[in-house]
Amino acid sequence: MPKQQEPHSIQAWSLINRKYLGKGIRVKRFRKPSRCQIRNRVLLAVLMANDIKLSQLAEDISVSSRSVSAWVYEGRIPGKKNLDKVCQYLGYPHHILFNHTVTSTSPIICQPSSSRFMRRTLTRSPVSNKILTGLCMVHDLSVSDVSEWMDIHPGTFRKWLHQGTLPSASFQDRAEQFFRIPKFILFADCILQDEES
């Protein structure tokens, strides 16, 4: 009776394959960005608040996924044709979505401790301020924590998100200092809505 070979384990086959096929080092296809690697936080915020994937945006406006990734993670500005397509698709002017002040720097926001974005914020009632809501998602911030850190009532912050209420100048300044994004961008949804009315 012929001697049966012992079946190789997965680990053994892996070692054999590494010997013949290369070093066996696997490089991830996609990097997991840290907060400081997102150059265009506003564009990513709008996409997240509208539940649009980068690949979906690329497909819908007929550009490569690599181009969209470069806009978000590297802060690149698209050419005029693609710039117009993105702005029309998302409904914001280019000075909001591709603002040089935002894309040239990617600061860590004034977040004193860890927080966690609560999806309840989106499901409780419709969101009017997509940019501000999206930024909370980008940085994984809860409404209650942001309210505490900015020294405002949580109900006030929720009004900014859900009702699109434009806060007083002093509250706008606080939000600008916290998120490190100009207030005319943070509250663009409110301003643009007022201009249309």
Automatic annotation (TrEMBL):
<dbReference type="InterPro" id="IPR001387">
    <property type="entry name" value="Cro/C1-type_HTH"/>
</dbReference>
<dbReference type="InterPro" id="IPR010982">
    <property type="entry name" value="Lambda_DNA-bd_dom_sf"/>
</dbReference>
<feature type="domain" description="HTH cro/C1-type">
    <location>
        <begin position="43"/>
        <end position="97"/>
    </location>
</feature>
<protein>
    <recommendedName>
        <fullName>HTH cro/C1-type domain-containing protein</fullName>
    </recommendedName>
</protein>
